[in-house]
Amino acid sequence: MTLLSSFDHMTIQAPQGYQPQARAFFGTFLGLPELAHPPVVTERGGLWFGLPDGRQLHIAVCEPFAPLDIGHPALRCTDLDAFLARAAEHGVPTTPDTLLSPLRRAFLSDPWGNRLEIIERP
User: Looking at 1-122, which runs of residues are DSSP E strands?
Assistant: First the structure.
């Protein structure tokens, strides 16, 4: 028997002073709304973004900072081709991947080198 009901949020790390790039990448490019959060989080330099299903992506300062590759968030989209076109419009490099075909997915990096996976789930 499990007492867990679902996944709530994931935290990724970024270097000090990351906030302007985070707002441009996660807010403007990915279209995620920035969420209000407890003042203690702001004092530590953190930002929270909301996903359409109510889950959240948190970003926290980590010093010394090292980008994550293997441990990465995988975000869903309904149209991978449209996502890849948007990434190209914003100058964000992507790497489509066919390893799990017929599942369609691509990889990209946030502004600090953390790996992100985008999976198409129509």
Answer: 9-14, 34-35, 47-50, 56-61, 74-77, 95-97, 105-109, 115-120
- Asked if the model's pLDDT at residue 45 lies above 80, the reply is no
62 closest CA partner among 115, 11, 117: 11
The whole-model pTM stands at: 0.91
CA–centroid distance for 34 within its chain: 12
Structure tokens at 78: 């309904």
Closest CA to 9 of 21, 17, 41: 41
For residue 43, CA distances in Å to 17, 37, 116 come to 12, 11, 26
State the residue for tokens 């929270």: 48
- In DSSP terms, which residues pair with 76 in a beta bridge? 119
Q: Identify the structural domains of the chain with CATH numbers, from first to last.
A: 9-120 (3.10.180.10)
Amino acid in the structure at residue 31: G
Q: How far apart are CA 4 and CA 81, in angstroms?
A: 34
